[in-house]
Design brief:
The structure is a homodimer of 146-residue chains.
Chain A lengths: L2 H15 L6 H11 L5 E2 H7 L5 H13 L3 E4 L7 E4 L8 E5 L5 E4 L3 H18 L2 E12 L5
Parallel strand pairs in A: 4-6
Antiparallel strand pairs in A: 1-3, 2-3, 4-5
Chain A binds a DNA duplex (25 and 25 nucleotides) through α4.
Chain lengths: 146, 146
DNA sequence: CTTCCTGCAAAAGTTTTGCATTAAC
DNA sequence: GTTAATGCAAAACTTTTGCAGGAAG
């Protein structure tokens, strides 16, 4: 079974667990997000999934998010972006260009990641907050805008 | 000169540098943000500044943001929040409750902060990205929702 | 007196929803 | 067959903008 089959099997299972179905439109959305290498806007998604109307894209992305297959990504743009849930991809962060708004995925060396995790764990413990996750983005200037 | 006077002097100077004026409405917005202890929504701001119409709030917050007095804060809600620019407040991060959406400011011990900064600096250097700033939020469950 | 700000109302943009129909299981 | 998904259009919501009048420097 290939990694892609695995992805679809997992997506279908999570939807089923939520009482929902893994339809063609939903599979198309997952394929688009899996191949992008960065979080996609609704416009990106619609371009990658011709024939899927906007309202279905919104509704299906919401369903996939509730099922834990997709994550809605926050940016400083005034529209949302979507990517696959973290446990379906490599752990990564985002580089956000403050000049052109471009967003790229970035993975960092394991030792940096674990140093970061240790720091965040200590931070969570000291604040008495039940930490579920963190959100870390680097905001700067991309190579094209520099 | 008190700290509050200082805040208003700085705000006025930054606006003036951008060719803009420190009017009563803008002062009211700054006072509201300075006293909140957390990033405010537009609704919060309007409640704290009676008589300021919505369009003026948006326009003035945008002007204050461009002048470097105010920062627009990104959350996973579908509306924006605003706080004073970081150099006008203590450096802090945000605790975001994934259950009720509540956002709180949090400051962390200096040693944790500098360990974090070192990690982020190394991260920026290795990615070849011109790092300007970072965005770090803790997302978890607040004391009321636990 | 020139430039910027204000306030109202209308518009623009993204996202959500009602409803009848179709598809999935 | 029963339940959920689809597609269209219309609505809801946050945010932006045009314009005429008023305030600031």
């Amino acid at each position: 079974m290939t990694r892609v089959d695995d992805l679809h099997t997992t997506a279908a299972a999570r939807l089923r667990a939520a009482g929902q179905r893994y339809t063609g439109a939903r599979e198309a959305l997952v394929v688009a997000l899996a191949g992008a290498g960065k979080p996609l806007t609704i416009a990106d998604v619609l371009a990658a999934c011709p024939g899927v109307p906007q309202s279905s894209a919104y509704r299906n992305l919401a369903a996939l998010e509730q099922a834990g297959v997709v994550r809605r990504v926050i940016t400083d743009e005034d529209f949302a972006r979507y990517e696959l849930a973290e446990d379906l991809t490599e752990h990564h962060h985002h580089l956000v260009c403050s000049s052109c708004g471009r967003v790229e995925d970035v993975t960092i060396p394991g030792d940096l990641e674990s140093s970061m995790d240790r720091t965040l764990d200590r931070l969570a413990r000291r604040t008495g907050f039940a930490q579920v996750s963190h959100r870390l983005d680097l905001i700067g200037t991309c190579r094209d805008c520099a």
